[in-house]
Design goal:
Order of helices and strands: EEEEEEEEEEE
Largest sheet: 7 strands, mixed
Oligomer: single chain
Number of helices: 0
Structural class: mainly beta
Radius of gyration: 13 Å
Number of strands: 11
Helix content: under 10%
């Protein structure tokens, strides 16, 4: 599968953005897709994930109540609301064909990664 992330940008604190990830290739057999983010000097961290079949969703504590992951065919979206300066990072989408864990919160759960899209939140 190939992944193309887009939708990042510069926004003021309290604002919103919608990130998109277009999946192409053998999408019909995907198990899940997720979003991660990486700030400068920090490790890549889990944000949200969605199962391809059934649509179950999972969120990091920092994302609950503010971010929403959704899927429409081969597109996966991450709606970012009430953004904070600490949300500033490069956001990556990821995909996997395998079920390695129940909660899809580790980078090791994913095999394919998009190129990342920058989100910058100003105070």
């Amino acid at each position: 599968v190939q992944l193309q992330a887009s939708g990042g940008g510069l926004v003021q604190a309290g604002g919103s953005l919608r990130l998109s990830c277009a999946a192409s290739g053998r999408t019909f057999s995907l198990v899940a897709m997720g979003w991660f983010r990486q700030a400068p000097g920090k490790e890549r961290e889990f944000v949200a994930a969605i199962r391809w079949s059934g649509g179950s969703t999972y969120y990091a504590d920092s994302a609950k109540g503010r971010f929403t992951i959704s899927r429409d065919n081969a597109m996966v979206y991450l709606q970012l609301n009430s953004l904070k300066p600490e949300d500033t990072a490069v956001y990556y989408c990821a995909a996997t064909y395998y079920r390695r864990s129940d909660y899809l919160k580790s980078t090791y759960d994913y095999d394919y990664w998009g190129q990342g899209t920058q989100v910058t939140v100003s105070s």
